[in-house]
TrEMBL record, chain A:
InterPro entries associated with the record: AAA+_ATPase (IPR003593), ABC_SmlMolc_Importer (IPR050093), ABC_transporter-like_ATP-bd (IPR003439), ABC_transporter-like_CS (IPR017871), P-loop_NTPase (IPR027417)
Gene3D superfamilies per UniProt: P-loop containing nucleotide triphosphate hydrolases
Annotated protein name in UniProt: Thiamine import ATP-binding protein ThiQ
Keywords: ATP-binding, Cell inner membrane, Cell membrane, Membrane, Nucleotide-binding, Translocase, Transport
PROSITE patterns: ABC_TRANSPORTER_1, ABC_TRANSPORTER_2
Residues in ABC transporter domain copies: 2-230
GO MF annotation list: ATP binding; ATP hydrolysis activity
One of the Pfam families matching this protein, by short name: ABC_tran
Automatic annotation (TrEMBL), chain B:
Membrane topology: Multi-pass membrane protein
Residues spanning the membrane: 12-31, 51-72, 84-106, 126-149, 189-213, 233-254, 282-301, 313-341, 353-373, 379-397, 438-459, 482-501
Intracellular or extracellular location(s): Cell membrane
Organism: Primorskyibacter flagellatus
Gene behind the chain: thiP
Entry protein name: Thiamine/thiamine pyrophosphate ABC transporter permease ThiP
PROSITE patterns (UniProt xref): ABC_TM1
Residue ranges of every copy of the ABC transmembrane type-1 domain listed in the record: 47-254, 314-501
InterPro entries linked to this entry: MetI-like, MetI-like_sf
Cellular compartments per GO CC: plasma membrane
Lineage, highest ranks first: Bacteria, Pseudomonadati, Pseudomonadota, Alphaproteobacteria, Rhodobacterales
GO biological process, one term: transmembrane transport
Keywords: Cell membrane, Membrane, Transmembrane, Transmembrane helix, Transport
Length: 230, 510
């Protein structure tokens, strides 16, 4: 269970609050207008932003002392998920061993992950030699080998076409399912939320509301969501 | 974070070592002099001339570099790589050899005056402020071009592609994409050239001089060699330390930037097709090539004849010089990396400080410090290597620091989320992103050490000698042909060692 306990976040003039829990294995969509703090919330959970007050707890344990790389979190950013100077295989291998001293077993895991996301045979390519969809797949392969229980998506597929984006989201869903991971994704599209997430939290007006069932939310949207949906 | 504190500890230790290396010799000189007196009117006049010539040199070098670097950045043509390599030439050309080349063109019996004579015009005189400026622009314009070219290279290709896609006119591309890069880089470049020219010694010794054109460095040399007045030298050295430290601090605070943003290393050629711009770029590049290459070519025609019958002692000296240069480059790059890694301006400015202490003062101070324990002449090669490494440190830092900060700004968050720390971060993120500036820095440090004639001229070792010192001795004995040939060998070795390292670095992202 992920708990945001009386959480207040500040970045310059911007401030937001959150106070709720998310059961392990759940899938949560964060939806709301630009600049409302969706990415800020992910930054706090992944450890790139220290809370102004309150705590982020995972299975009852405060995450505050852990730097980003030591948290039980795998994250996909909006862009820049791959090092351009490393091959696809090495980019994925970093998820297993940050020092890249890969054993034969590790290399096998990398190969398996790449075939799982449909990139067999592209191990030695550089990111610039891949299409946008293939870059997303490579980053997803790294998430796969990291085997972290919390998976955060900060709109990593927003540059892809609708069909490709749905395909990638389905793949993420399968990956999260197999690993039993808890998934939190930022999205602008109600369709993505309906497709992917059982729960949705509205982030607006300096507050991240508590997650509610996605179907019920869109059937009877609260005022803050209605103005966003237009 | 653990990573931060480890880098900070190593960087702090390196900064301490550098500070001791710079300050201890100065203290030794001051102590030996029994406390230094207040600067005389002549000293103040030297200070004024020093600042004036350095400011003008920096301004001309940086402004002229903008069209040259822009033309180089946006054009692809056969020989472009060779031209970029040539832009590194004057900076690593051993100063004595370079001045000989410039005198062969602009000197009393040089090409220009002979041409003027042919058309019945009066001779021009290279000596004085304008001569000093000419030489400083010759040395520093190409350096500024290369530093700016790195700036253009660091602009993400995606951004230029977007501009091309939107069909933005050149003026808009300049304002939106290139001007922000220039605004971030030009102050730093101005400050570097300013600092180099503040401490320029050989150029002013030969082309300046007299009460109207004496710099602090030249005054220090005169205090040492003519008067052996250590007190006066120490006063001047303190003055020098103050103005250059001020310049370095100003440079660091001016050149702070957000970094250019992440790109995926796509190669994008953005050449406006307008024939007028094409003509302008061609003219700029040809003029620069002639200005930079001609003095070196003059040297070639003068020295080539005697290359084969040089005495063996020259070849021994060449070997010694290579050894000193490699040791100096290794030390300088390691120190530079240690100082740059914590990404703290305070630590970096200590590295920049080494430029403030003139090599002459550093050498004398080390001489005084070592004399109670051993005869320093026996260790002058080691002293030379250390002093050379210290002098190269600002250039090493200037080369490494922006790309290191860019690598951290672009990829630090991803590296953090993958728990890339310590050695792994260095190996998987920092070193691969820094190969180009590392190669450039190592080549620069080695070549600068190779051509240095500073400390070793003040305290010549009894048995061994470096190549520049041997050339100096040959000149003193009026064996001009052999001296020219040895100069040519020195030039070849300096260029060779620079090209080797720079190529290793640039090859990395092929």
């Amino acid at each position: 269970m992920l708990t945001l306990e009386n959480l207040t976040l500040r970045q310059g003039d911007f401030g937001m609050t959150a106070d709720w829990s998310l059961p392990a294995g759940a899938r949560l969509a964060l939806i709301g207008p630009s600049g409302a703090g969706k990415s800020t919330l992910l930054a706090a959970i992944s450890g790139f932003l220290a809370p102004a007050s309150g705590r982020v707890l995972w299975r009852g344990e405060d995450l505050a002392p852990l730097p980003p790389g030591k948290r039980p979190v795998a994250m996909l950013f909006q862009d820049g998920n791959l090092f351009p100077h490393l091959s696809v295989a090495r980019n994925v291998g970093l998820g297993l061993r940050p020092d890249l001293r890969l054993t034969d077993e590790d290399r096998g895991a990398v190969t398996n992950a790449l075939s799982r996301v449909g990139l067999t045979g592209l191990e030695d390519r550089r990111p610039a030699q891949l299409s946008g969809g293939q870059q997303s797949r490579a980053a997803l392969a790294r998430v796969l080998v990291m085997q972290r229980p919390l998976l955060l998506l900060d709109e990593p597929f927003s540059a892809l076409g609708p069909a490709l984006r749905r395909e990638m989201l389905d793949l993420v869903g399968e990956v999260a399912e197999e690993a039993g991971a808890t998934l939190i994704m930022v999205t602008h599209d109600p369709e993505d939320a309906r497709r992917m997430a059982g729960l949705t939290a509205v982030v607006a007006e300096g507050r991240a509301e508590a997650p509610v069932a996605t179907g019920a939310l869109f059937a009877d949207p609260p005022e803050s969501l209605r103005s966003y949906l237009g | 974070m653990a990573r931060g504190s480890l880098a900070l500890r190593i960087g702090g230790a390196a900064a301490l070592a550098v500070a001791v290396l710079v300050l201890a010799p100065l203290v030794a000189v001051l102590w030996r002099a029994g406390g230094a007196g207040w600067p005389t009117p002549a000293d103040w006049s030297a200070l004024r001339f020093t600042v004036l010539q350095a400011a003008l040199s920096a301004l001309f070098s940086a402004l002229l570099a903008i069209p040259v670097a822009r033309a180089l950045a946006r054009r692809r043509f056969p020989g472009r790589d060779a031209l970029i390599l040539l832009m590194g030439a004057p900076f690593i050309l051993p100063v004595i050899a370079a001045i000989a080349g410039l005198l062969a063109i602009f000197g009393r019996n040089g090409l220009v005056n002979r041409a003027l004579e042919a058309v019945g015009s009066g001779p021009i005189d290279i000596f004085g402020l304008h001569g000093v400026l000419l030489a400083h622009v010759f040395f520093n314009l190409p350096l500024a071009v290369r530093l700016l070219l790195d700036g253009w290279r660091a602009i993400p290709g995606e951004r230029l592609r977007l501009a091309a896609q939107l069909d933005l006119p050149p003026a808009t591309v300049f304002r939106l994409i290139e001007w922000p890069m220039l605004r971030a880089r030009i102050p730093g470049i101005l400050a570097v050239v300013f600092a180099i020219c503040l401490s320029s010694f050989a150029v002013v010794l030969i082309l300046g001089g007299g009460p109207a054109a004496t710099t602090i460095e030249l005054a220090i040399y005169q205090a040492f060699t003519f008067d052996f007045d250590l007190g006066k030298a120490a006063t001047l050295a303190a003055l020098q330390l103050v103005i250059v430290t001020f310049a370095a601090a100003a440079a660091l605070s001016l050149s702070r930037s957000e970094g250019p943003g992440a790109g995926l290393d796509r190669m994008v050629v953005f050449a406006p097709v307008s024939p007028l711009l094409r003509l302008q770029d061609a003219a700029v590049l040809i003029a620069t090539t002639v200005f930079v290459a001609l003095p070196i070519l003059m040297l070639l025609t003068q020295g080539a004849g005697s290359l084969t019958d040089m005495p063996p002692v020259i070849w021994t000296a060449a070997l010694i010089s290579v050894g000193v240069a490699l040791a100096s480059a290794a030390l300088s790059v390691l120190l530079g990396l240690a100082l740059a890694l914590p990404r703290r301006n305070g630590i970096e400015s200590i590295g920049m400080m080494t430029h403030a202490a003139s090599a002459l003062v550093l050498g004398t101070g080390l001489f005084l410090l070592l004399r109670p324990f051993t005869y320093p002449g026996n260790h002058v090669l080691a002293i030379t290597a250390v002093v050379n490494a210290a002098s190269a440190l600002p250039f090493v830092l200037r080369s490494l620091s922006p790309d290191l900060r860019a690598a951290e700004a672009d990829w630090g968050r991803l590296a953090d989320s993958l728990n890339l720390t310590g050695w792994s971060r260095l190996r998987c993120l920092i070193l691969p992103r820094l190969r180009r500036p590392l190669g450039f820095a190592a080549g620069l440090a080695a070549a600068l050490s190779m051509g240095d004639l500073g400390v070793i001229a003040l305290f010549p070792p009894p048995d061994a000698a470096t190549l520049p010192l041997q050339i100096y001795r040959l000149m003193g004995a009026y064996r001009m042909e052999t001296a020219a040939a040895a100069s040519l060998l020195l030039v070849a070795l300096s260029f060779g060692i620079f090209a080797l390292f720079d190529r290793i670095g640039r090859h990395a992202d092929a």
